[in-house]
Amino acid sequence: MGPVIGRRLRRGTVTAAVAAAAVAALAASQAPGVTDVGREGPAAGAADTPPPSGDSATGDSPYYTDLPELKSPVPPNGGNTKQEAGLPVTVLDAYKKAETALNKDKPGCNLPWQLLAAIGKVESGQARGGRVDANGTTIKPILGPPLNGNGFAKITDTDRGAYDGDTTHDRAVGPMQFIPSTWATWGQDGNGDGEKDPNNIYDAALAAGRYLCANDRDLSVEADLHKAILSYNRSTDYLNTVLSWLEYYRKGTHEIPDGTGVLPDDRSDTRYPGLRPDPTPSNSPSSKPKPRPGSGADKPGNNGGGSSKPTPPSGGGSEKPKPADVDMLANAGTGDLVAKTGNAFGERVAVRALTESGAFVPKVKVRFTVSGDTDARFEGGARSVTVTTDSRGKATAPVLKAGQKAGKFVVQARVPGKAASRVDFEAQTLARVADALARTSDKALVCETGKEFADQVEVRATHKGKVADGVAATATMIKSATDASANDKGPYFKGADGNPVRTLTGLKTGPNGVLKLPKMYADGAAGTYLLRIVTEGGATLTVELKVTAPEPDATPSPSDSASASPSASPSASTSASPGA
What we know:
signal, peptidoglycan lytic transglycosylase activity
């Protein structure tokens, strides 16, 4: 397990310190070899010792070691919007129904459905991302590797291949990865169809819940919770991983469509890159073909021509292995595709090419296409791009950038020529919005009739107290505070043709959230007028504009001065003349 631990520590931090301390405490409280009662597995004290066959629900099969994000931000509505927090709708329903059933039948167990989700995550990646039918049965059986003692517990066949299709060794089966012998004891009919199918998520979730509640455990008690998890797979690393997901899911989850869940990457056993839904495992311990009798190929050093070198195929050169065929594409960790207009999407679309058995397929061309009524484009302006999968079958599209058009659209990933190999990702471009507008100056806006306003209107838009740039806005000279229709008199803007315009559309706030309107002019009607600015998102500001009549000219004309001045009149002049 050393390399696995190293890989997990590189991927992120875990709650290992807390869990490991708890395991140590449990171990110290019990004598070596003490176990819980029944078939459910040994107590925590023996967690690091190899288990006898059948002593855990899964036979200690490999599991996914992927860990959740270090932080799991919860938005104001209480739901976690991270893609990893999305649970396929049918799978989530099965977990919750199992919790309800056990709350009724075993109220003292206090089983949280999030525990089932955590185990379902590490055992099968939530039924391979929710690839289940309407009844909750996996589209294809989910099987672990044969438990042949080669890196795993050795469990010879107990079900004659009835559950796992293997008549030589047992394999863990279904989304909760029960080994056949454990399922024979704990199997349940969770969906009421009269069958107990380990590949049905309703049946498997209820069985897992009852298994975890065995021995009158109270899962609200930490020691009982840890014992229950360790009974499922006797590994401290397994315990720590499940506890990490349990904590993550408790912070909030949301439903996603079946089949769109994130497919985990890391396994506790690197020989099996994914749980292999192989319905027809070989009945022979070795799948290596035997040579035909009499061909000479069964003799050491003889390939029929007396040479120790293999004979090249006709045409010369060595025969290259045929590349594996792609049977499906799966989401490879793409989160929510949401961006504001003009911004790059924070998530990149990524898929993984898989064979029918769940193995990765490298060097496969995957076509990513932006589809729908949108101006969003991949980096460089392309609407479609082709990417080749890497050695782990993963293809990641270039950065996707939102245009100026808000709305929903789809990014499609497909393997050209393979209609079944297709995944659609819903994306959304959100319009930038503002919830408040304010003038950048408190100077009164006054103008005489027939003249130009000395100052232009300038406002700043904000959203939740932060600068709101790129927000669409409209400015209108309105008739009154209660009538927002455009006025037909008073102040106006000038159009390109020089004619009066009293409504401006297509405005947008700048990088600092500031919007500066064009110059304004006054016609011949004096009075008080209103300018209303409205942004996307509903922010509204009404600005008062005053248009005044010209002031009377206080300087008298020469003629008026001459006629009005007493000294200017002949009589006054005469009377004022000395010696009159």
